[in-house]
Design brief:
This protein is of the alpha/beta class. Helix content is 27%, strand content 36%. It contains 13 helices and 26 strands. A hairpin with a 5-residue loop joins strand 13 and strand 14 (225-229). The longest helix is centred in the first third of the chain and has 16 residues, at 67-82. This is CHAT domain-containing protein. InterPro entries: CHAT_dom (IPR024983). It holds the Pfam family CHAT.
């Protein structure tokens, strides 16, 4: 879609299953942009939905509901339905003023339906180099940051951490996603983290602005705001992660004069494959729901467009009245929507020394475990101590992905000799503050041989020494 003459625009269907078409359509862009604040209030639930429908209907009529373009759109929908697929609508906007409109709200009055509720909508950024999918061995690695500089409305950083961690708890527990929070959301702190590992996703929660170009607020060392232009932020991220998520109040807003001034479009132009950005403020509940659906879909191998659609559906699950599913915007570099090829998890290496605590009946023990690994098979020893009491156990076990099973099969040394029980432990490997952790539950083994051990259980947590 591009400007044709004042007050009108040329819409072209450049590729579809139903053929090509074009039309010249009127669109009052200035009038629609003037309603942006009213529209934002409606999305957040403090203004009537009719505002969103009025704007959405005007956008739909201009883009998909006029002349031959409308007939091609209807035919393409029918073809997709016959194939059992969702239609993907790719917007290529050649005008900065058009980029500032909320196309995700397009409303088809004839079907009484919002397009984003039934189809996949992508904003295409024309760039010369197109990325190919990268092969990722699970877990998908997410670097998250939530700067809260002094002098700006404060973020409840601990709550932001807890909410995103909670939203991703299931895929994290299944070994599909690993999330690491930047303790120092400063330029130097982020640079250290970016250089220390391969990150597939950068997830930003915080303040954004646009003053001639997109800006994101990091922290200075003294906690004051460091407003970083999108171009410099893109330089910081190089080599670019494939996906950036911007949960920022202005993170998806394009400047009125330059198509690439908005943070999202600048990051795409700099080499990021896809940006999922919020074009309005988003409530905590909606942000959590979107993150859960979106990341679970990506970790499961879905395309980025389908992941955004699943995230929208997750927001819809909060309440039938919400309109916040309009808020996410997907910007894509090129036409490929599958930016990751998810492969099996890397073979887990747990060989070495692990130390920690065993709690539960009959009492806490300091634990020192030494493991040897051959493929998925484990052997080793475990020493338990509690004051003068000490025992050394013979271990066998196995590792599959992030799951580690350990069995004590014999007592090698014990003092006193008859006060000990053999146990089985089912542990999961995770990373906390960049330190590997094995944690899980244990139960007594062979209680028929050791009646005093029947029914005892507890928790075991070990860190790599």
């Amino acid at each position: 879609m591009a400007a044709a003459q004042p007050g009108s625009y040329k819409v072209e269907v450049v590729r579809s299953a139903a053929g090509e078409a074009s039309a010249i359509v009127p669109l009052d862009v200035a009038g629609l942009l003037a309603r942006r604040a009213e529209f934002r209030r409606a999305v957040l639930g403090s203004a009537p939905e009719s505002v969103v429908r009025d704007v959405g209907q005007a956008l739909f009529t201009a883009l998909l509901g006029s002349g031959e373009v409308a007939s091609r759109y209807q035919a393409a929908r029918a073809v997709a339905a016959d194939r059992g697929e969702r239609l993907r609508v790719v917007l290529r906007l050649d005008s900065a003023e058009l980029a500032g409109l909320p196309w995700e709200a397009m409303y088809d009055a004839a079907l009484d339906s919002y397009i984003c509720r039934t189809e996949q909508l992508v904003r295409h950024i024309p760039v010369p180099a197109l990325p190919v999918p990268i092969k990722v061995r699970r877990p998908l690695r997410v670097l998250a940051l939530a700067p809260s500089p002094r002098g700006l409305p404060p973020l409840l950083v601990a709550r932001e951490h807890d909410q995103l961690n909670s939203a991703l708890s299931l895929p994290v527990s299944e070994g599909l996603i690993e999330i690491h929070w930047a303790d120092r959301p400063t330029w130097s702190g982020l640079q250290e983290l970016l250089l220390a590992g391969d990150w597939h996703v950068v997830h930003f929660i915080g303040h954004g602005d646009h003053r001639g170009e997109g800006l994101l607020a990091l922290e200075q060392e003294d906690r004051r705001a460091n407003w970083v232009e999108a171009r410099r932020f893109a330089d910081l991220l190089r080599p670019s992660p494939r996906l950036v998520v911007l949960n920022s109040c202005s993170g998806a807003a394009a400047d009125a004069f330059d198509l690439f001034a908005g943070t999202a479009t600048t990051l795409i132009r700099a080499g990021v494959s896809a940006v999922a950005a919020m074009q309005f403020e988003i409530s905590n509940r909606a942000a959590i729901a979107f993150a859960h659906g979106f990341y679970s879909a990506i970790a499961g191998g879905r395309g980025i467009d389908e992941a955004v659609s699943i995230g929208r559906i997750a927001i819809l699950g909060l309440t039938g009245e919400t309109l916040e599913w309009i808020t996410p915007v997907l910007y894509l570099r090129g036409d490929r929507t599958r930016i990751f090829e998810m492969g099996p998890a890397q073979e887990t290496d747990v060989e070495g020394r692990w130390t920690g605590r065993l709690t539960g009946t009959p009492g806490p023990l300091n634990y020192d475990v030494r493991l040897k690994q051959s493929g998925s098979e484990l052997t080793g020893t475990a020493e338990g101590r509690n004051g003068a009491k000490r025992a050394l156990f013979d271990l066998i076990g196995s590792v599959h992905g992030d799951r580690v099973e350990l069995r004590q099969v014999g007592i090698l040394e014990a003092s006193p000799p008859h006060a000990w029980c053999l146990i089985n432990a089912s542990l999961r490997l995770s990373v906390r503050d960049q330190v590997p952790v094995l944690s899980g539950e244990w139960t007594s083994a062979a209680p028929n041989l050791y009646p005093h051990c029947a029914g005892i259980r507890g928790h075991l947590e070990l860190t790599r020494a």
